[in-house]
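INSTRUCTION: Work out how this chain folds

Fields: amino acid sequence; protein backbone structure tokens

Chain under study, with its fold:
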Amino acid sequence: MTQPLDTLWYTRCPVPTGLGIAVQKGWLQATVGALGTEVQSLRESDDKAVRESHFDHTLRNSVRHGGNIPAIWARAQGRETRVIGLSWADEVQLILTRQDSGIKTVKDLKGRTFGLPDWAGAQIDFTRAQALRGLENALSLEGLKVGDVKLKNFRYGGTFSDTPVHSIAGTPVTQRVTERNLELIGLLRGEVDAIFLKGAHAAQQAHDFGLHTVIDTGSHPDPLIRSNNGTPRTLAVDLNLLENHFDVASGILDSVLRAEQWAHTHPEETRRYLAQETNSSEYWVTAAYGNDAHLRLRTGLDDQAIAALQDFTHFLHRWRFIPNSFDVREWIDARPLEALLNGKTALAG
């Protein structure tokens, strides 16, 4: 018989996820704790290599729920991970300009300068990839290509894992000087004509600086236009956890689904949790994720999410963020979800 797992490492992005709520409510800890397993936050570790596993999935017996770019990149690098769930919470994805730029529509972007983040020291620059995706998708709606605009890079120093995350009053916070958005500063200074921002902070910054939204690809009816780093988000575990501690993997998914089901009937409390997760306010959470943000927390393995993940994987290969593309269906392991749907939960009750 397999020995109980000592420690499960968890990590989630500062975005709406079922795992984030399950952690905040203590349900992940209770569910896997009943199996004899301690739960630790990967991003709060003092060890940078452990923190970097949020992006490269090198840490054994870990789970990550968040943006799909690092997960796809790690898989393309040969990391033995498996996706056990996909969540899709639509969010604002904004192409922004200054009011005096003369840019009113996507067509007006032709020949203009677009600012891109450039985290040269990071293993996978997800910020650059998601900005390029938003730009390419927006331009494609008018028959334009990225080559029709000029690109200007804004170089960041260090990596995304240089400092630990600290939980302050329930909000995961990382204290980095480079938290300042260099592309936004460049836009305000007139160094570029347009940039891409997404999520609650994008909605707030667009308002605070009086910026013009050229397009919100996050609200487009075509799911492939909405598809980006956060749509869908991957719930991924390493293969060792799945093969040797299947009860823990099922327990993770159990707590995520339980948190999401709770959210569907607790809209106001959910908004408060999401505000903590995103280090924002309930107002901007609503602006970014909708009045029905609590209903958008749904993890499964539906065909639309899988198709979008495949399309986005091809995009990352085409732009050379990953060395090769792959079949995402071979990356998915539906066994934990099937076990839960068949009533075989890791924790009774």
